[in-house]
Each structure stands twice: as structure tokens, then as C-alpha cells.
Amino acid sequence: MNVFKFVSPEIIFGPGTLSECGLSASQLGARRIFVVTDKGVQASGWLQQALENLSDNGLEYVVWKDVSPNPKDYEIYTGTHKYIANGCDSLLAIGGGSPIDAAKAVALLVSNGGELSDYEEIDSIRRPLPPMIAITSTAGSGSEVSQFSIILNAPEKRKMTLVSKSLIPYISIHDPELLATLDTKVMIYSGVHVLTHAIEAYVSRVATPLSDLNALNAIKLVADTLRLVKNGSRSKEVHGCLAMANLHAGLAFSNAILGAVHAMTHQISGWLDIPAGVVDAVLLPHVVEFNLPANQLKYARVAEAMGEKVTSVDDGAKKVIGAFKNLFAELELPDKLSQLGINSKLYPILAQNIIRDVCLVTNPRKIQMNNITEILRRAY
């Protein structure tokens, strides 16, 4: 058996676990916490509950809620200044991927200095980060358990992918009750992102038996649950399944990394400032068509995990793309990039940004600039 590593934060999962944040922070030695969130989480009421819990545990806090979807580099520099000016010693992020990624980036800069672009090489962080707790209020990003932070380089309109074990939060809290305030459309977009995380982690060049176990569990859970959400089901069980799928997928891709769908989605969603899951739905069938020759066995297993009746590897490989397309059609998601408002004249710029994304390193099939351009053309 091959030797492999698997990284993870301490995980607290279950209904009502939002109330664990104060005790968890106290046990990490926090005294003055930098709370990172956004206005949507504030409006939902979850932020206030978290702050009350911090106060009940005798902790001081400073709130920064000026994080936008697809957080920008200049926002991170503002947050870094606020953290330092207020003498904070730790971080708590509550929200989806945007607040959590932003909190990670602030933690990086307050401890290591420099510019965010200095850290685009994998594992280029040298000094330890302050303690951080992440509370996810969506089921989509996986950032709360991962070694990723995605930040937009605003002048270049290019997303930077920061990858380091140092970016993994100390503690990750998953309270399915927080999903109750999401609308159906957001939940579907988030769920498609979970599915894409899991699939790309499963077929990654550096996948391991443990990452595979998490990835397949995520695929099975989310494919079935998304159909229930689309049909109006919003029960505690549904929220719990989506939260668990998100956790499994996050652990999978944090350890196996990702692939070409994410390299492309990072740049297109950053350019258009739209949810990543919408772009994933358009790109996934086209990228899998390109990657399929590299690992037909695993793609056949993906088809089976999504509910297809598979009689052989060849049969499963033939059915996997149709499984994606059928699911996305049921969810009424777009299937062309042109429907998202992207101008095909931007493809040369986007391709230049895509080829720099570290997620391409673990794509199951080597991909070059001409392949990227052709996939974009087919998806248009």
C-alpha cells in the first residue's frame, strides 16, 4: 500500500453547533477575535447568535462584514489593517466561501506580510497563522475544512488560488440549521459546486483511498439531495445531507486538490462576479469529455454514484456525461457560457489566466492552452 497524508481541522458537526464557537475560541487561547462575515449572514441573524456566544464566553471581538462575493485583494488589505489596528489575536469566519477565504487571506498577511500574489505557489507560507475558526452557513465552498483560499486580483480580474496546509482552520463548525435561511437557487448553485469538488477530487492525479472515500460519499449524497431541493423539500434531513456532502467534498479536495473545471470556473466566475456553481454546471460535461480517456474506471464509478445503472467500465464511461447533463437540466441550470453573459472575445485573456491556476497540476489529463481554448469554444 502506498503512503499518503490526509489533513483536516477539528470538525464539529450537527444541529445547534453554532453555539460551540465561543468555547472553541476560548480553548484556542483567543481573547480578541476578528470576526469576518458578510451582510447576508448579518441579515440572517446567525452573526448575532455567534457574537452573543462569544460574549457569553468572556471574549472580545471586532466585526468586519465588508466582504463581497468573490472577495477582492483590496478588501483583504483593508481587513488586514483593521485586524492589526484593533489588536486582534485570532479569527472567526462565519458565512460561505467568501468570508472564510477572506479570513484566511487576512490571517496570512497579518502573520507573513507582503502581497497576496507572493503566495500563489503551493505551500509558500513560511510563518504560522493566528488561530482561526470557520463556521459555514452554506453547503458549497468547502473552504471551512480546506487548504485553499481564492481571492480576486482586482486590477487583473484574475482569481488567485492560494494553497497551503497553513490555511486550514483550526476548528470547523458545520451546523445544518444555518442552511434554513438559504433560498432554493443559492442552495442548488452551492450543491453543484459540492458535486464538482467531489468529482474533480476523485479523479485527481494525487487522489488517495481516503480522499476517494470522501469524494464518492459526497457525490452520492449531493446528487440525490439536489433533486429533492429542486422539488421543494427543505427538511432538516435534506439540510443535514447537504451539509454532510459539503464536508465530505471539502475534505476530499483539500487533500486531492482539483482540476480543470475549477481552474476555468475560478477565472470566469471572477470576471463575471457570478456564483461558481453556475459556471461549473456549464463546464463540467465538456471538461469530463476531455478528461475521460485518462481514467474511464473512475468516471464509470462517478456515473454509478450518481444513480446510473452501470454494467461495465465502458458502459459507465459512456453514461457519465449524460448523468451530468440530465441532472443539470432537471435543476434548470444554463448549459452554455453564452447564457452567462461572457463575451467569447475574452477567451484569450481568460485562457492566459486559466493556464496559471494551480488546479491544473492535478487534472487527470495534461492540459495545454489550445485544449483550454477548445473547451471554452465548445462550451460557448
From TrEMBL:
One term of GO molecular function: metal ion binding
Fe-containing alcohol dehydrogenase-like C-terminal domain mapped to chain residues: 188-380
InterPro entries: ADH_Fe/GldA, ADH_Fe_C, Alcohol_dehydrogenase_Fe
Pfam families per the UniProt record, alphabetical: ADH_Fe_C, Fe-ADH
Entry keyword set: Oxidoreductase
Span of domain Alcohol dehydrogenase iron-type/glycerol dehydrogenase GldA: 9-176
Top-level taxon: Bacteria
Protein family: Belongs to the iron-containing alcohol dehydrogenase family.
PANTHER family xrefs: ALCOHOL DEHYDROGENASE (PTHR11496), ALCOHOL DEHYDROGENASE 4 (PTHR11496:SF102)
Protein name from the UniProt record: 1,3-propanediol dehydrogenase
Organism: Desulforamulus aeronauticus DSM 10349
